[in-house]
Automatic annotation (TrEMBL):
This is Membrane protein implicated in regulation of membrane protease activity. GO terms for molecular function: peptidase activity. One of its GO terms (cellular component) is plasma membrane. Keywords: Hydrolase, Membrane, Protease, Transmembrane, Transmembrane helix. It is found in: Membrane. InterPro entries: Membrane_assoc_protease (IPR052165), NA-bd_OB-fold (IPR012340), NfeD-like_C (IPR002810). It is a multi-pass membrane protein. The chain crosses the membrane at residues 12-39, 45-62. One of its GO terms (biological process) is proteolysis. Pfam families: NfeD (PF01957). It comes from Mesotoga infera. Residues 82-141 form the NfeD-like C-terminal domain.
Length: 145
């Protein structure tokens, strides 16, 4: 396989990495690029395969634990976002569907907001989060308990 073949193989693996959340194919993509560089200097397929296999294996063994540790740091944020439903906050910018605006402060953070019933909610009104749609919270006026 010539250097162009290795480079195409490396690009395909890079696209696969982008399309999957595994953070695994990147190392093989880099290995294919290194094998392609090797192919520019030698036509010996054995050396190209050795460079590909050795570099890919070393990259997986040396960096996979780091990648796993970094990806585990994502879960607390997901839990926080899931925990928003049912929480309470205050309107800091009037929720007005006709103007397509509204901001709610929940636990010190401001979130784009819409009212669940499509109505207007004035500033400083206590609200409860009913659900999330992307980065927008859908809220209702909080009733006195």
């Amino acid at each position: 396989m010539g250097y162009i073949g290795w480079m195409i193989f490396g690009l395909v693996l890079l696209v696969v990495e982008i399309l999957t959340p595994t953070f695994f194919f990147l190392w093989f993509s880099i290995g294919a690029f290194l094998a392609g560089i090797t192919a520019m200097f030698t036509t010996n397929l054995g050396w190209q395969i050795i460079v590909f296999a050795l570099s890919s294996t070393l990259l997986v063994l040396l960096t996979r634990p780091i990648a796993k540790k970094l990806s585990k740091n994502d879960s607390p944020k997901k839990m926080y976002i899931d925990g928003l439903v049912g929480s309470t906050g205050r309107v800091v910018v009037e929720i007005n569907p006709s103007l397509d605006r509204g901001l709610v402060r929940i636990e010190g953070e401001d979130w784009r907001a819409s009212s669940i019933d499509g109505g207007t909610i004035p500033v400083d009104t206590p609200v409860r989060v009913v659900r999330l749609e992307g980065t927008t919270v859908l809220v209702e006026r909080k009733t006195q308990e």
